[in-house]
Amino acid sequence: MAYGQAGRHSGMGQQPALLLVVVLLFSGAMVARLAWLQLVHGAENRERADDNRIRLMPRNPIRGRLLDRNGQVLATSRLTYNLYIQPREVSDAAWPDLRDRLAGLLGLPASALDERRTSGNNAEGFRIQLAEGLRPEQVLRFREQASGLRGAEVDVDVLRSYPHGRLGAHVLGYTSGITEEEYARLRDKGYRIRDRVGRSGLEKVYETHLRGEWGGQQVEVNAAGQVQRVLGDKPAKAGKDLRLTLDLPLQQAAEKALDGVRKGAIVAMDPQTGAIRALASRPTFDPNVFSPAPSSKEWAALNGPNAPLLNRAFQGFPPASTFKIVTSAAALESGIYSPDDKVLTTNSFCYAGLCYGDHGAHGMVGFPFALAVSSNTFYYRVGLKIGPDALFKTARRLGYGSVTGIELTEEETPGLLGDQAWKKEVLGEPWTPVDTITSSIGQGALLVTPLQMARLYAAVANGGWLVTPHLVERPVPRSRINLKPSTLAVLQKGLRMVVTEGTARLLNDPKLPPVSGKTGTGEDPPRPDHAWFGGYAPADDPTLVIVAFGENSGGYGGTVAAPMVKALMTTWFRGTTAAAAAG
Fold first, then answer.
1. Do residues 51 and 120 touch, judged by C-beta distance below 8 A?
2. What is the pLDDT of residues 407-439, one digit of tens each?
3. Are the C-beta atoms of residues 472 and 244 closer than 8 Å to each other?
4. Distance (Å, rounded) from C-alpha 261 to C-alpha 70?
């Protein structure tokens, strides 16, 4: 009996000790866990808690506008509402229900939502755009049901807008969404995955000037995701506007003038400064299709054989008879010919067993008249006498064979001056007199861009200065080409005679100031000919130089290109003529 009581008392004494051990073990585990969470991983867990509690609501920067020289808007921005999902919040199992609810609520095809989700999937977990350009009523319906659409969101986006559509598309360029590779490279410079960047034209060249800086609002939310208070606010910084040298009415006239050809280009420029007043290329495109993105059909057309994205003002083509002012300058600068010399013109010219035709025989004529009637036999003889060295040296002196220095450097080509060295290196053949004959009238291995030609004609117009074409007002160099005053006088007289009694009489219009220029018809067998006109006005004090080009347009420079130039000059000088008449 005594033994049993002693055993009971002993067992009862062990129970508190056992409980104490258990309590101590649990307490130690809790302390160790707290130490692990707060001391070892405290900073990390606080960051996670803040991520759940604090949200950053980004604010898009408004891209700077592109304006013409008088402040008319050529490119601006517009707001749009897009539908997104956060892929980390929507599992594959939950997606079908969310998809069907979104489709019914917003009137969107479920198949299209499926396709967007699949194509937009990314390893980084960036949100996926399911639809763009939502209508106000769609946005309102979503807002009303947003609490039950976990993982989906409607957000505002800023898209580029070009109010004049295709006008000036090759100059202005376009923007599109940043790629993942670009984002990885540019995020340290403030770019976000939702950014849009300039892809071509001035949008690309002046990207840093136009883009602005992102802003945002930091807010605290509760467990239901409802905003409790604003913790911080940083306004987005808008990009800077960019004023161009383009003149909107003249650009509109250039675009309309090119409607008469399938392919071609027009450049209008201030011959004194190099400021571009109009620059158009055909075929063209509407940069609005890139906001937000072109359809597969539109993309195929943009990359089709007609190459509408190609700026033909920057591409090289045979200059044809417009090159005869180079041959004239080369002859007069060489000292072999004087300004008063005359050369025989005939219906044909035979050399080394080959005969070359002409469109008229005028007997012995001087350089101005030869330019006026565009005599081939005159320039065959002149070219052979001065030789290719003098010819190509003068062409380079006048800016051919090199880029002009315009801002769109990546898009400009230098053209081609296929001289003796080029022929030997590229074709492996020696130079022949036939090459000299064809080069002297702008055929053969010669390619000149419409922009280069505008620069050359500006040099004749302004008294011998080679200007730097530019689309944004900025300090630009110009250099003396040091032509003899007598050479410039002959060229200026000849270009004026082209209009008064030669191949461009269409421009000898009393409604216009005196016009000077040169026509050209470039052969491109078996395709139709190219048509050129390069000129300026007023002849005695030029304020505008224009080059018009029709690629494989058929016809002649005087019948295809000269009417384009007349349309632009009518627009440009309308105010000047009216003021003079009133005076």
1. no
2. 999 999 999 999 999 999 999 999 999 999 999
3. yes
4. 29
**Confidence grade of residue 38 (pLDDT, cut at 50, 70, 90):** low
On the question of pLDDT at 10 being above 80, the answer is no
Structure tokens at 541: 């004090």
pTM for the whole structure: 0.83
State yes or no: pLDDT of 144 exceeds 70: yes
**How is residue 326 written in tokens?**
């180079």
The matching CATH number, chosen from 3.20.20.70, 3.30.1370.100, 3.90.1310.10, 1.20.970.10, for 55-243 is: 3.90.1310.10
* Rounded distance between C-alpha atoms, residue 330 and residue 383, angstroms: 9
Per-residue pLDDT of 85-128, as tens digits, reads 888 888 899 999 999 999 999 999 999 999 999 887 776 566 78
CA distance 479 to 468: 9
The residue behind tokens 């307490």 is: 27
- Report d(CA 563, CA 549) in Å as an integer: 11
pLDDT at 505 over 90: yes
CATH of domain 248-582: 3.40.710.10
User: CB burial class (10 A; 0-12, 13-18, 19+) of residue 474?
Assistant: exposed
Q: In the numeric block, which tokens belong to residue 72?
A: 């008319």
Residue with tokens 């194509």: 119
C-alpha distance from residue 359 to each of 85, 347, 454, 491 (Å) = 71, 6, 27, 22
| All structural domains of the chain with their residue ranges | 55-243, 248-582
Q: What is the pLDDT of residue 102?
A: 94
Residue 40 makes CB contacts below 8 A (sequence gap 6+) with: none
> Which runs of consecutive H residues, i.e. helices, occur in 335-375?
367-373
